What we know:
By secondary structure, the protein is of the alpha+beta class. The chain has one domain (about 5-230): Cyclic Phosphodiesterase, Chain: A. The protein is built from eight helices and ten strands. The strands form three sheets. Strands 2-1-8-9-10 form a five-stranded antiparallel β-sheet. It is globular. InterPro entries: DUF1045 (IPR009389). Pfam families: DUF1045 (PF06299). This is DUF1045 domain-containing protein.
Amino acid sequence: MPSDQPRYAISFTPAPHEALGIVGANWIGRNAYSGQSIEPPMIGGMSLSEIAFHTALPRRYGFQGMLKSPFHLAEGASEALLLNALMRFATGWKPFFLPPLKVVRRRDSLAFAPAIAVPALDELAAAVVSEFDPFRAPLSEAELERRDTGALSPVQFANLHRWGEPDVMSAFAFHMPLTGPLQPRDMERMERAALEFFGPILAEPVEFENIALFVEEEPGAPFCVHSLHPMGALPARRIA
């Protein structure tokens, strides 16, 4: 697979007009719909450069919770076929609400995650992984080695070799990254900053009514929302 080909990811991200999406874009410093950079937030006790440094990784990927991690298209697949399949897929799933989100420590990073388990979300994520696996180009041996950190559980190892990613199916845990890797000394300060910045928004339920297709046009480029696919019987909305 040529390395200069686009990569795609299937994810959840709030609609552009929703408060969580607006504040999330402000936190990471980029709007994934427009691609526009946003100046990092002012948070007491932290410099703008410090916030920008710690949010660099989610800024590249956009404010999203991935259901299917980035993949190149398999031989014989095309963007048009992927879009048609995603549109049809989305119409077969009813929208639902996520419980209020909370800031969690995920490995060495911070992320949003639902306060309680959401079976409908787990079911949807598993279906996305399996339904769209035929569109995914197989990983090379080098990619497999890079993703096998040596710390994978047997289930994660099996997932990596079957689905191209370890944290899927029974190992899936929905989350929306807020930071990249943090040093232990920075974890508590960033956690306080996130709680302060998002504030009352965390108490609001989140409607999961769209499935988003993200695209990385070339290696190293930021991921942007390509299209939103409403769950139900509405057509996909291309994001200009």
